[in-house]
Amino acid sequence: KNEVEQSPQNLTAQEGEFITINCSYSVGISALHWLQQHPGGGIVSLFMLSSGKKKHGRLIATINIQEKHSSLHITASHPRDSAVYICAVRTLGNQFYFGTGTSLTVIP
Amino acid sequence: KAGVTQTPRYLIKTRGQQVTLSCSPISGHRSVSWYQQTPGQGLQFLFEYFSETQRNKGNFPGRFSGRQFSNSRSEMNVSTLELGDSALYLCASSPRDWAAYEQYFGPGTRLTVT
């Protein structure tokens, strides 16, 4: 059983579409991170959440601690958003777990 | 500020050998974490160091070890390499700890064990 589950695994969208990636976890956490990984391996941390909602430009991340669920939204998607998006959690016991990632392709 | 740097970027080793990878965090960052990424297992946590102390360790065998120096630079060592150790090894730094701050990732070291 994976402590962190992401859906969907793969996602193809037309440029301009609204995109949602979901992350569910089964453990108590102190923080949840959304990461973006482009081909070639480089990882960028998009958001760190412990409650509520955060917004950076066209990206919005929300977390519901009671439901153990987080979502990453991309508004007005663009081909440069094509990447793998990974949900990662730090548990209350200081362990780290990662989702398997969502591969997003945005078609012009 | 310069980003997180990792050396070497690419490495080919033979089974049974040992390897040392280096990570230099962003200036002023005191926390360094290491991760292994493989196609089969995805991202997995290896270690977390803060102010030269190992704070956490993932579920890896004792062949994997690490340390952090007084200037916050960190090294990880893998002894008696196995084919399954072939992976992208990433380090990340943050001002303090993972729970309170975002992580800044280095470009990774791609290790191939033959």
What does this entry look like structurally?
The complex is a heterodimer of chains A (108) and B (114). The relative contact order of chain A is 0.35. Chain A is built from no helices and eleven strands. The mean pLDDT of chain A is 94. Chain A is mainly beta. In chain A, strands 2, 4, 5, 9, 10 and 11 form a six-stranded mixed sheet that branches. Chain A has a five-stranded antiparallel sheet with strand order 1-3-8-7-6, with no helix packed on it. Helix content of chain B is 0%, strand content 53%. Chain B has strands at 5-7, 10-13, 19-24, 31-38, 42-50, 53-57, 64-68, 74-78, 87-94, 104-105, 109-113. In chain B, strands 2, 4, 5, 6, 9, 10 and 11 form a seven-stranded mixed sheet that branches. Chain B has a four-stranded antiparallel sheet with strand order 1-3-8-7, with no helix packed on it. The relative contact order of chain B is 0.33. The mean pLDDT of chain B is 93. Chains A and B meet through strand 4, strand 5, strand 9 and strand 10 of A and strand 5, strand 9 and strand 10 of B.
Summarize the helices and strands and which ones pair or pack:
The complex is a heterodimer of chains A (108) and B (114).
Chain A: E1 4-7, E2 10-14, E3 19-25, E4 29-37, E5 43-49, E6 52-56, E7 59-64, E8 69-74, E9 83-91, E10 96-98, E11 102-107
Parallel strand pairs in A: 2-11
Antiparallel strand pairs in A: 1-3, 3-8, 4-5, 4-9, 6-7, 7-8, 9-10, 9-11
Chain B: E1 5-7, E2 10-13, E3 19-24, E4 31-38, E5 42-50, E6 53-57, E7 64-68, E8 74-78, E9 87-94, E10 104-105, E11 109-113
Parallel strand pairs in B: 2-11
Antiparallel strand pairs in B: 1-3, 3-8, 4-5, 4-9, 5-6, 7-8, 9-10, 9-11
